[in-house]
What we know:
This protein has helices at about 10-20, 30-45, 45-55, 70-80, 80-100, 140-150, 170-180, 190-200, 215-225, 250-260, 275-290, 295-305, 315-325, 335-340, 355-360, 400, 405-415, 420-425; strands at about 1-5, 105-110, 115-120, 125-130, 155-160, 185, 210, 230, 240-245, 265-270, 305-310, 330, 350, 390-395. The protein is α/β, with parallel strands linked by helices. The termini are far apart.
Amino acid sequence: MRTLKLNNETKQNIQQDLLKRSPGHYTEYEGRVNAIVADVRERGDKAVFAYTRQFDGADISSDNVKVTDAEIESAYEQVDKKLLSVIRRAKKNIFAYHEKQKQYSWFDSEESGILLGQKVTPLSCAGVYVPGGKAVYPSSVLMNVIPAKVAGVDRVIMTTPPDADGIVPASTLVAAREAGVDEIYKVGGAQAIAAMAFGTESIPKTDKIVGPGNIYVALAKKAVFGYVSIDSIAGPSEILVLADETANPKFVAADLLSQAEHDEMASAILITTSDKLAETVSAEIEKFTSVLSRKDIILKSLENYGYILVAETMDEAIEAVNDIASEHLEIVTQNAFEIMTKIRNAGAIFIGEYSSEPLGDYFAGPNHVLPTNGTARFFSPLGVDDFIKKSSIISYSKEALQPVCQEIVQFAECEQLTAHANSIRVRFEKE
Length: 431
């Protein structure tokens, strides 16, 4: 892991380096993805099933694309009972946290006959994409589905790629049932995103698509945005640890590696005011890496996007934290809560040495679907708000409109919109 002095040049270089991981930089895949999306839109099920055979090796048809109750019941028999208990406890925490995010309709009325308000309506149908392949992510099922159910979405469907035998991992199915998914379809990749965006004979059209995926999934979500809503076009995972001389170097090293193991494009950054901590953390990283199972991925990730930055002052370090705007931020310093108040840009903030990032990934309750690639400057974690829409309510009586009608007419005529002005004027033309 490179150790550098933090200055404007190193900070800007790192920011540019991290942005290279954005799905927007992988334009060579866009043609293929757009062709798949267009084909699914045109041919529906036929295209979806053909791509599923091509990419996943599974013989899926309208007869078996939808996961049955029997398959889910079988999954419960296969899943370790201790894991099921953990899933249920995590589900309880995630539900409780997201319940506090709920918004409600409101109305304000005046005696003059004015009523203004906001009507909050859940989306009718949400689509959740869950990655498959070699990895299994029941935690992503919980994090993407539960906010939708808390919001009151009528129908939550899920797509996930099957293996070559047409089987979905048992833990994925169990997590889906526990979270309250209404329907599950054995489809993955760009073809699944297109199916949920436009609908096919077997897979319903959704209002919004959420969930992580590979570059093909990310670019497919980009391609269908506008036909449906999406959560974001997520990039690789990232962690930034802000630490001073009081931090435990072994803990810091372990937390950095917890993200580096995701994939070769994951980013792990330590910003510290202590040269000694920087040196010790580097040594601890070498020790851990030598014994961890995903050593090759970790080494590549650290080689490409791993940094230790040594700042002169804590204020300088905080400024860099806000500029980088990391997906996950850990604060392991004296007065950590005071420093937290100075953080403007981070997807999720973990405070104190016992609040390691995996706690948020699996169990604490806040959502682990977070903004990446610096988008924490303007995006928020996935939440209940992502599954509702708001309508403005306006009601004026004649008595309320009459005193202000000339003002509205004047505004409309200023913009040369005479039909607008007429719409108000005609109501009082006899008076």
